[in-house]
Amino acid sequence: MLLVIKSGTVLTPSGPIEANVVVEGERVVALTEHSSTAFDERADRILSAEGKYVLPGGIDAHTHMEMPFGGTFSADTFETGTRAAAWGGTTTIIDFAVQQKGTSLLSTLDKWHEKADGDCAIDYGFHMIVSDVNDATLKEMESCVDAGVSSFKMFMAYPGVFYSTDGEILRAMQKARETGSTIMMHAENGIAIDQLVAQSLAEGRGEPVQHGLTRPPELEGEATSRAITLAGVTGAPLYIVHLSAAQALAAVAEARNTGQNVFAETCPQYLYLSIEDLAKPDFEGAKYVASPPLREKHHQTDLWRGLRTNDLSVVSTDHCPFCFKDQKELGRGDFSKIPNGMPGVEHRMDLLHQGVVAGEISLARWVETCSTTPARMFGLYPRKGVLAPGSDADIVIYDPAAEQTISAETHHMNVDYSAYEGMRLRGRVDTVLSRGRVLVENGEYHGSPGHGRFLSRDLCQYLN
Ligand code: URP
Ligand code: ZN
Ligand code: ZN
Ligand code: ZN
């Protein structure tokens, strides 16, 4: 099958170029000049991208499908979540296998393969959440890397659940240094936060906004600095997940200025939503409970700047949806029992395109932060993250002139609300290909569960 995408503006991290993209089977085989007709006669299909952008499919490096958390499971399965991702122009996710205390990493990995294999509409990889650091699990980190899982998430938050002590983090970082793998850190000081939470509840303050007020940005800044220090002592590459606070960004920027291998991602919710959403009355704030929490609006200015300067290298969603009606409800009257997480996998590409429209980031940075850099950061480049001969034909044709309104009525995520309900957007995904197969076209879905394959990932390709 030969397919030519003609007359579009191809987006690359070094800027837009006017080119046709030629796809044979699952791969890109050539980029040609707009005037070229070299492949037309042989082509089985010609798609016009005139007036549209052609970009490498989005890579969401932080999702949680059917994640056991907060006494329930996140509401999207691998099937529904990857379908929603495809609708939004994301053609790869990297999800998290979750080690429960007392279990092994490899049995955890097997379990996550069972959950995902045969269900995904798009290609997928795994990070490993390490919640039980001991001699055996440290040894197993080597096997995980061999099995294509080259990044390990740890938590400085959630004591008693996923929390690791500084000593445990140090040991895992030493192993990461030894194996060349990356430590991803949920950097919030969970020990201090738990005291603030207990005090708030003791004062009878159980409403959702307290989730934000008991997790102040200083405690994200402090944990981020501590993680950076530990990474510096061990020499491990460090990737700060879901960075939300100016204080944490300052710590990352300082480390990066010294040349340390420290990287960070942020998420659309921290760029567009704020603690005012958490403060919505009648328990509606529960829709916005995620950790770290939504911040005061002034943090957004810093985050956009971080995206421009590359102190924030990646935008992912931390997609972890819980239904408002039957899941967020678990924490009515006690915000500490509201399952933590928000939906978003479907709208990352669109929301970051608003940053282009508003002049916050360039087209090149849009593609870089949403596709190219996640591919490099997590060992998928140049198979993913770029449109070049030899790379997978994961392609989005994006119409920058179209308009749309986000709504739970029309989204494809398996959750009963949208955090961005009613938000008007400029631009819209027009056509999506995954390894040469058209998944979305003319507002119709042509994907199927099981098309997506597991991606065995290399080590980080983004180190200094
Ligand atoms: O609230 C969040 N972020 N839920 C997902 C789990 C995590 O910490 O990433
Ligand atoms: Zn986290
Ligand atoms: Zn997460
Ligand atoms: Zn539900």
Which key features would you list for this structure?
single chain; Urease, subunit C, domain 1; alpha/beta; binds N-(aminocarbonyl)-beta-alanine; globular; 2 domains; 9-stranded mixed beta sheet; binds zinc ion
**What Rg do the Cα atoms give?**
21 Å
Describe the sheet with the most strands.
Answer: 9 strands, mixed
Helix content: 25-40%
What is the CATH superfamily label of the largest domain? Metal-dependent hydrolases
Number of domains: 2
What ligands are attached or bound here? Answer: N-(aminocarbonyl)-beta-alanine, zinc ion
Percentage of residues in strands:
15-25%
> Which descriptor suits the 3D outline?
globular
Distance between the termini: 40 Å
CATH topology of the largest domain: TIM Barrel
Count of discrete alpha- or pi-helical segments spanning 4 or more residues: 13
Which class of the largest domain in CATH terms? Alpha Beta
Find the structural class using helix and strand composition: alpha/beta
How many DSSP-defined strands? 19
CATH architecture of the largest domain: Alpha-Beta Barrel
* Quaternary structure classification: single chain
Provide mean pLDDT, rounded.
98
Low-confidence stretches are none
Protein name: Dihydropyrimidinase
Organism: Prauserella shujinwangii
Domain Amidohydrolase-related: 53-438
Family: Belongs to the metallo-dependent hydrolases superfamily. Hydantoinase/dihydropyrimidinase family.
